[in-house]
Design brief:
8-stranded mixed beta sheet, about 375 residues, homodimer, alpha/beta, Aspartate Aminotransferase, domain 2, about 45% helix, 13 helices, Aspartate Aminotransferase, domain 1
Chain lengths: ~375, ~375
């Protein structure tokens, strides 16, 4: 790996768009304003003032919120509570690789339903349900999906809610990118439109505060949250109170709004640069420009061997994640580009290297 | 519950012995000195400088250390990796209630071996091993055991190591209280004396920094640590980098030494007060004074109904944990007193209330 490698691989922010000063100030306030709550164990529901703040944001009762060590941990708790080995679980195709891994390690019967540029293919899901498959839950990343960057339309959100009510499955609305919309109009969450307690909602402060703070949360029916809180107690007594108290101070001071604005401005610029660079250096690439979030899915011509491309790219000092990592099968001509971690001045160079790697593939579609 | 309840129930420090100012300063340094490492995801092994610091403290290679979100999470990872349903696991009798709960929920065949004032009854363990039982591991809290407050003698540490080598089981040395010794001589860890890679060691900063920081760690053979790191990645990507960076700054600045001294001084004083108060108000109590840690085990006369005592105590505004919570059976005349969370000026009053509750038990040994 070249020492100046440009990594489009990791879904994480570059340091320039993290409000380090704001976090430092929030940490000072956390220890000053609530030394007891910040330093003591607390309980598995999370830091009480932050839990209350989240409940207010979502217009729900506090008993419906559980604050966790990152939203991955929230996912793991939810899956451990709600999914049994052998049970069908619907996920998007492609979907987040760790979700796939966790569900498979639980022995779930993972059913991938195609993702379209306006979200999961609800006709395909309906056909699956009509065929008799009864999933425990459907995992959906509605906004700026990981890995594809696509957003679920309002019409499909309503349709999913109808299907969930009709067929009795839970929708797991996994929504860490919602606040990072830099173009287009915000669409209401399924959780906010849910009239049948069908939706469990998860989000995170990783994209709006910073990932190292590891604070995520679940919103769901109070009985389910209580069940998961018990599992959380037995797993780690309580999540990180210091981190949650810092997040709370960061939120109530309004620093989070400035942080979100910084992130959105930078990412919008990066997407524009990425688009221009691909058009110039790799016109074979097909993609839909994301309206928010960290990721863009790229299709290369049929016959492209993404594994070979990955190696050729690594040699040239550019990294991405192969599309095949987000699928159970197929995707050999696809890749995920994360622009969140690459500053704008490096994007063109990164795409140049990627294009160079693509052209180096002898016998590939590129050479044909 | 009375509004001024005195709680001898929770194994947590009172706020007066937490170095809140030192933590606030450490947080400022964390964001200033390493903004990137503090705010980014990192990896599941933990914050690299803290991992290195811990490795140096234990004289091991960094690859042998995994830093986690509290040591309970470390325990949970270790058990998930090393214990299969139906497998025998040795624990002390009594032992930490959450350990018991976790092992039982994994379906382990929990074998409790009596705890004596100098630690686990090695003769009883030897007999168990000779009878053909082959445990996956033996969980031992060597210093100021939770719940009993007893410490494993050097002779028994050596004997345990010999048994582990002879019968091929792992010793899980769960040692969060080691640095909180306020009388007597420090005894080397089994991990430091281990010549056969028999020991996996866990500890925590909950008792030396603060519990809300949720930082614990495992030290063990590199291959095992790598296996657990993989499980940790799949569970939460990475532990809390902000918290671990704060702990690192707290440690390298030497603030941790001052913090430990504060805790030891206060707890020594509290144990002396507790001893005097029990002698005065509840002379029926039998106990061994701990040389460190948070807990003291109290035996009351045979026939005492600790569940009734618990209720009578609650009514009088004093709380403790019933001995029965730390056992699979028996212990109806025992209780655990945690003096860590009660300031010295409240201990005598707490014991008075407890004694009053004890004398209120009609038909109990107290009334006899």
């Amino acid at each position: 790996m070249a020492s100046d490698t440009i990594s489009f691989a990791r879904g994480a922010p570059s340091l320039d768009i993290v409000d380090v000063g704001g976090l430092r100030d929030a940490a000072t306030r956390a220890f000053t304003n609530d030394p007891g709550g910040t330093t003591a164990y607390g309980t598995s529901i999370g830091y009480v003032p932050l839990r209350r703040w989240i409940a207010e944001q979502h217009g729900v009762d506090e008993a419906q919120v559980l604050v966790t060590n990152g939203s991955m941990q929230a996912d793991a708790f939810l899956f451990a509570t709600e999914v049994e080995a052998g049970q069908p679980v619907v996920v998007e195709k492609p979907t987040y690789d760790r979700t796939l891994l966790n569900l498979r390690s639980l022995g779930a019967d993972v059913r991938m339903v195609s993702l379209q540029t306006d979200g999961i293919d609800t006709a395909e899901l309906r056909a699956l349900l009509r065929s008799g498959v009864r999933p425990a839950l459907a995992h959906v990343i509605p906004n700026f999906q990981n890995p594809a960057g696509y957003t679920l339309s309002l019409a499909k959100r309503n349709e999913l809610l109808e299907l969930a009510a009709e067929y009795g499955f839970a929708i797991f609305e996994d929504d860490p990118y919602k606040h990072i919309r830099f173009s287009g109009e915000d669409i209401p969450t399924m959780h906010s439109m849910d009239e049948h307690d069908s939706v469990v909602y998860a989000s995170s402060f990783s994209k709006t505060v910073c990932p190292g703070i590891r604070v995520g949360y679940l919103v769901g029916p109070a009985a389910l949250i209580a069940k998961i809180a018990k599992l959380a107690t037995n797993t780690y007594i309580s999540p990180n109170m210091v981190a949650q108290s810092i997040v709370y101070e960061f939120c109530v001071s309004g620093a989070i709004d400035g942080s979100i604005q910084t992130v959105k401005t930078a990412l919008a610029e990066r997407v524009a640069t990425l688009d221009a660079a691909l058009e110039q250096h790799l016109p074979e690439a097909r993609y839909t420009l994301p309206e928010g979030g960290y990721f863009m899915w790229v299709d290369l011509p049929e016959g492209t061997d993404v594994a070979a491309l990955f190696d050729a790219a690594s040699e040239r000092g550019v990294q991405f994640v192969k599309g095949t990592d987000f699928l159970l099968e197929g995707g050999e001509n696809t890749l995920r580009i994360a622009y969140s971690g690459v500053t704008n001045d490096r994007i063109d160079e990164g795409v140049k290297r990627l294009a160079d790697a693509y052209r180096s593939l002898a016998g590939s579609a590129a050479a044909a």
